[in-house]
Amino acid sequence: RTLFNDIDLLPPDSLFNIKQRLSQDSRPVKVDLGIGAYRDDNGKPWVLPSVREAEKVIQKDPSYNHEYLGIGGLTSLTQGAAKVLLGDDNKALKEKRVVSVQSLSGTGALHMAARFFTKFCGDKLVYLSDPTWANHNAIFETMGLKTATYPYWDPATKSLNLKGYLSAIESAPKGSIFVLHACAHNPTGLDPNQEQWASILDAIIKKDHIVLFDSAYQGFASGDLDRDAFAVRLGLEKLAEVSPIFICQSFAKNVGMYGERAGCFHIVLPRQDQSVSIENVKDAINSQLAKITRSELSNPPAYGAKIVSTVLNDEQLTEQWHKDMVTMSSRIIKMRHQLRDNLVKLHTPGNWDHIVGQTGMFSYTGLSPEMVKRLEKEHAVYLVGSGRASIAGLNSGNVEYVAKAINEVVN
Ligand code: PMP
After folding, report:
1. I need a surface site. Which of 130, 144, 236, 326 has the fewest CB within 10 A?
2. What whole-number distance in Å separates Cα of residue 393 and Cα of residue 338?
3. pTM of the full structure
């Protein structure tokens, strides 16, 4: 009876806790800028038209059922997903250097990477950006991996601390693991430009570091899959002769599959010399990944995978999906502009241009924890203590209200 009496009470997850506080708030006007999930202009979750269509196709199929998928997941998903990420005529795909398996969305892919690292790269340090998505620390540390940080955000200039970033790459122990946000960096919404990406990747190669790209927002950030895959594809090109690349791919945001947990984990192998059979290496890796999935999930979830696979493998649905991503990204960009313009109109102290300069779901507003607290307490505007605001929570009905609230707490 005393067995569990000493268990520590952990603080609630800060992000999901926001949702709870918000649901208990009885004020008539509330604004949720917490969790990163797309909302339409009425503040409602949005089922993508391409997804609605895909669901009809799936359910009309005479072979429709709820059977188990194979351990590696749905091949039509993993292959389609690799093409989306790497590009149709990617060299690594043509040279058959890519291992792809289905994962429990992006988080599951990161966890799989972490398990793989513990087994095959156990003593390596995992470098995360400062700041990063809070779950990155939890995922790698829970697996017993040691994490370190590389400078990223310069609060004074609200821009990339490239110098600090490069010097962290330089001083990290040779062969460390660097987790890079493929696009739409969470929480800052700040991405390196193309030139900066080139110097980051060159510095990484120089020190034989290993790259893990976390791709959670491809197509969601700019509305253009190719544009948002720039860093991943540059990395593939630069590292093709040097080392494997790990990629964690989520369909939560760009297909709106949040709760369906559709994602993939890819390992792109470098070109091998003639003495090594790449097929043997791939088989061995696949067998190890299968062992991980079998013991943890048995097999990955089917329904979301079928939806995404249907979207990716039907020309018309793919076309509709591309339009859907433009719908989401352009509404978010519009909200960034309206928030900035409203703050300027109110003569809110400070410069707010970073809100429109940042990309993806979030804006790192620069609001202090005290200001965030006041926004919640006095205006029922909820965001994360770090000042990260999910721009998707803004709409034409509440953006002015939010600007006035920000203006009040800043003044
Ligand atoms: N990485 C980053 C940087 C993210 O922001 C997210 C979603 N918040 C994920 C990975 C994975 O999310 P999911 O497990 O829902 O695909």
Report:
1. 144
2. 13
3. 0.96
